[in-house]
Amino acid sequence: MRRISRITVAGAATASLALALSACGSTSTSSSSSEPKGDKGLAIAYDVGGKGDQSFNDAAYAGLEQAKKEFGYETADVEPTDGETDADKEQRLVSLAKQGYNPVVGVGYAYAAAVKGAAEKFPDTTFGIVDDATIEADNVADLVFSEEQASYLAGVAAAESTRTNVVGFVGGVNIPLIHKFRAGFEQGVKDTDPKVKVISQFLTQTAEEGGFSSPDKGKSAAEGQIEKKADVVYAAAGLSGQGVIEAAAANKVWAIGVDSDQYRQEALAKYKDSILTSAMKDVAKAVYNLAKSVEDGKPATGIVKGDLKTGEVSLSNSNPKFADDAELQEAIETAKEKIVSGEIKVKSS
């Protein structure tokens, strides 16, 4: 391992980190030893919704937990705060880097300015950002995904599963990232069955309005689409997607989850029979791989992209009704093969 232990009082190190981050959101740290390492391990700063969103942030945390278990080092994960600025985010990342955490990952496109600023201040620390491809720096890895490809397959699943010929899409915030989800889903539906109508809407124009963190907004939007006969609703809305799934279960229609395998999420267990599948992106794997590259002494930098070919975007098969539907699985597999081969070009906007 590249890390060298030094004799330090563990309680003092923990108190120092808590003090440094007290103005920047709540933090949890963990170590496999009573003596902290001289060079600490992976730290992540959560996006809107924080840990417990059963989606995007929780996937990043799973990557952190895997790295902690394998490499036996100290980790940190930091919650966002309401109404925070780019300067607040940058201070949070700077505080983590000062404490010796490496790599430091901002979870979500909203960390772009913060990661850029912190990376300039700490050129010897590797930084990562999930879902942004605009930072060009020697010590930054842009962890991005072809969400439109998984969403295309979700569209195939929706078109094959609908009985009303109406399906819905609920996007959390009207931004380019979520446009990728919508574009892929709509294309997948239309390529599968042009007769199927897609009702699409965004919950808010900005993240600050709660588009990614308001299950009540997601529930209301889904109920509106269901009233218009949608019997499959796909949500790309972070924590707000829980409301979409709840509405689908209450109205006995299908929901399609996002980012993580939401059929297996404990907090959604009572709704799981209404979750047809989930369009997944392996944020956990991307975060873990970045940590491993640093641990191996060969830090990943630049654009690191996951897609159907690499297996870092996919559809979940946890619901037996979905997995055991041979005709549906054949349609999805055929579409996947055509996307991987390049025969199908999936739109991203």
From TrEMBL:
It is a lipid-anchor. Gene3D superfamilies: 3.40.50.2300. It is found in: Cell membrane. CDD domains: PBP1_PrnA-like. It holds the Pfam family Bmp. InterPro entries: BMP_lipoprotein (IPR050957), Peripla_BP_I (IPR028082), PnrA-like (IPR003760). Residues 1-20 form the signal peptide. Keywords: Cell membrane, Lipoprotein, Membrane, Signal. Coiled coil: none annotated. One of its GO terms (cellular component) is plasma membrane. Its main location: membrane. Belongs to the BMP lipoprotein family. This is ABC transporter substrate-binding protein. It comes from Streptomyces caelestis.
